[in-house]
Amino acid sequence: MNIGIIGYGRMGKTIEGICKERGHNVEAIIDLDNHDKIYNLSPEEIDVAIEFTQPQSAFENITTILSRGIPVVSGTTGWIEQMDAVKLFVEQYDTGFFYAPNYSIGVNLFFAIAEYAGRLMNKFPEFDIHIEEIHHVHKLDSPSGTAIHLAQGLIDRIQRKKSWINEPGSHPEELEILSDRQPNVPGIHSAIFTGPHDIIELKHTASSRLGFATGAVLAAEFLHGKKGIYNMKNLLDAIYAT
Ligand SMILES: NC(=O)c1ccc[n+]([C@@H]2O[C@H](COP(=O)([O-])OP(=O)(O)OC[C@H]3O[C@@H](n4cnc5c(N)ncnc54)[C@H](O)[C@@H]3O)[C@@H](O)[C@H]2O)c1
Q1: Ligand 1 first shell, C-beta below 6 A
Q2: How many Å apart are CA 191 and CA 121, to the nearest integer?
Q3: How does the average pLDDT of the chain come out, rounded?
Q4: pTM
């Protein structure tokens, strides 16, 4: 497959390595210093573009590439409120889009386990629930997209929780997400269920960026040749089905 990498930072460089390991050609690498090249990308040259840039650049990058008829895998977090507009571009240009706030296969298994726990906890109002997340100090968005996804999965299954809040001291109907930033932490997320007599803690710790990068390249392989909008649930369902 011919891949275009948009954003050549920590993730873009790791993704380049995984693409090569999996036998793909990296046909274009675009960052701020050669950003104009994005307007010359063509579907003849690039099968799928993988975009990991910054919250304020993601929407424009994604829609520029989609409007050239090239499918996009995006991992940039912090722009999700513009997803409905991206969907319109996918329809208008009849192409494909894959988005995940976290591409790690391990973290997506963690989501499934936490959602199962949420279904059980719905019946036990004596347990309160909160989320803790720790990332490296360079992360621009807070709470993390992963923490928001984890919170939403729990809120959808636990009737006594109606919304999330990113500070302590919440109303009982709010699910707290506590965010911390520390040097050199790729990503730690915990869902914590606190009862009157015990505490249950589900925790995912990313040990490197390789897990995210591998998942993004698997997503690009999955998206190749497809139209429409996909996420990690679609990719995992395809893996379960094999
Ligand atoms: N979804 C996931 O699994 C996952 C995993 C890790 C990081 N992330 C997210 O991915 C994004 C990138 O993370 P990172 O650690 O690589 O950041 P980074 O700061 O190391 O790299 C971002 C790169 O994007 C470039 N860039 C900025 N604006 C651009 C533009 N308009 N066009 C082209 N390039 C541009 C920057 O120059 C930089 O090289 C962040 O939003 C981060 O939260 C997501």
Answers
A1: 6-12, 30-32, 35, 52-55, 57, 61, 75-78, 100-103, 139, 212
A2: 12
A3: 96
A4: 0.87
